[in-house]
Amino acid sequence: MKKSISYVLTLALFCSMLSPAIAVERTILEADQRLAKLEYYAYMDLETADTITKGEILEARNEIILSESWAADGIYAYVSDPDGNIVNVLPQFSELFPSDWDVPSFQVSDSIVATESNMGLSMARAWHLLFNGSVWLNTPPSSGNSPSFCSIATTGFVGTPSEYYIETISAWGTYNYPGFGGTYNLGFSNRSTGALIVWQTNLPNGNSLSVRPPRNITVDVRASTFSLIGNWGMQVHADRY
Q: pLDDT tens digits, residue range 182-229?
């Protein structure tokens, strides 16, 4: 009887040791299967597809696109650490994806608008704090379209002696404090078209994303997280010329 009990306990222990490994293998297998499905649709011919399949193609392409970090062609963007050191320059969209893939577009949502009066008139060039507050970051939907929390016009006081343009927009978030762990996602988009101009995924807590935006547009800033859902301290700065 004791031998039987000992055998059962040993078997149970062995199975418990196997379970995590089996779970990991299952997760990897499911991820591989999902990626294979995404790639199957993403690389299909959009022009010859029927209406339903076109939707599946575009959805698959967007999910693949939003799993990478990039800047729209012609846009310069980079990531900096909490000390201000540039740690990565984002690749151009066309360097990562086929020529017939389009930059994703997001629906416009209400956000705090940094007006011309926020930018000040006293200096020809200056850094301006445009947003400093708490923002609830959640897991992004599959479309990536998290609500924007700040909007910045890249040109102001047009046609007057005080006309200016934004050289650089920088945004960053912290959860508790930089280096706490976890990551977040940042996106800059053109408010009038909804098209993304920069997308950075899995940005380390406390690191920032900067972009040199086009003139004469309004930029929406949006953020989300996969790892630390909750209130993040978000800041947005702009370098004005």
A: 999 999 999 999 999 999 999 999 999 999 999 999 999 999 999 999
When divided into structural domains, the chain yields a total of 2
Say whether both 96 and 37 belong to one domain: no
Are 144 and 207 within one domain? yes
Q: How confident is the model at residue 126 (pLDDT cuts 50, 70, 90)?
A: low
User: How far apart are alpha carbons 66 and 42 in whole angstroms?
Assistant: 13
- Residue 71: which of 228, 204, 190, 216 has the closest Cα? 190
148 plus 188 within the same structural domain: yes
